[in-house]
Amino acid sequence: MKKYQLAFVVMFLVFAGFKSDKPAYFIFDKKGNTEKFEKMVKQLEDADIVLFGESHDNPISHWLQLEVTKDLFELKKDNLILGAEMFESDNQVILNEYLAGLISQISFESEARLWPNYKTDYKPLVEFAKTNKLQFVASNVPRRYASLVNSKGFEGLDELSDKAKTFIPPLPIVYDSTLNCYKSMMEMEGMGGHVTPNFPKAQAIKDATMAYFILQNWSKGKTLIHYHGSYHSENFESIYWYLKQANPDLKIVTIHTVSQKEISELEEENTGKADFTICVDEDMTKTR
Is the peptide bond before 23 cis (omega within 30 degrees of 0)? Predict the structure, then answer.
């Protein structure tokens, strides 16, 4: 089945689910109380930064990202900025060229290092930005530099050229190994005993870079909504932590995505991980 056909089937299932009183998702607040979509969006309006943590293969995540973005645009207009983990910082120029209409869609999609599920899950966001002349930030570290950190630690970044260093935060990289998001990576099972202290650092350089380019492109009065895997902002760590280190006064609202067998009540282990949690039926079709 082609991807666009799959997307149509997924949306049909979503709406069919609602019609049969079997919803595909619920939204919960930080305390685990159910929340209406409209009320959540209203609370996002005054945020400086919205960190939208998705499940990469979950169509509900991606659909709600687009719906939240549309509604925020109605409230913020050109004071809305988009940004995403799925675009690396050294691809900002080509992304800008596409949004400005300087290069074709074919050129952009063939030359940018796009994720396999770009056309179904992220292209709608890029096209929305293009149609409405919104800025879109390519925030993530180039993957080759994450690999460099994994092999040589943060010290490996010192060897980069001055030009290469424009794609990462200023050195040295601030790092707190006691944060659970990094500490837990050292305790991961099934890694064949090959987990080194550099492994979580490779994750941290992604978080630090995304936070850095979020702040480089945000200004007071604007709202920047950033899309990324839920791990990058859950429990108010990772990107959130780096943003607060740089600017403690930022008003940041986080959205998290989880899957459960029963979705009408948020499980204890999933409660409090974000300001808002989208709980999706675990049987939901995957996008990749």
Answer: no
Residue 29, SS3 per DSSP: strand
Find how far residue 134's CA is from the centre of its chain: 17
CA distance 120 to 111: 18
DSSP H/E element including 124: helix 123-131
Residue tagged 């943003």 (tokens):
243
| pLDDT over 70 (residue 93) | yes
The domain total for the chain is 1
Is the full-model pTM beyond 0.85?
yes
Q: Please determine, for residue 263, whether its predicted confidence score (pLDDT) is greater than 60.
A: yes
Angle formed at CA 220 by CA 236 and CA 95, multiple of 5 degrees:
80
Give the Cβ contact number of residue 102 at 10 Å: 11
Relative to beta strand 276-281, strand 25-29 is antiparallel
Q: Is 229 within a domain?
A: yes
Question: Which CATH number covers residue 90?
Answer: 3.40.50.11550
Assign 3-class secondary structure to 39-69: HHHHHHCCCCEEEEEECCCCHHHHHHHHHHH
Residue 263 lies in a domain: yes
E runs forming strands in 30-135: 49-54, 80-88
How many residues are recorded in the chain? 288
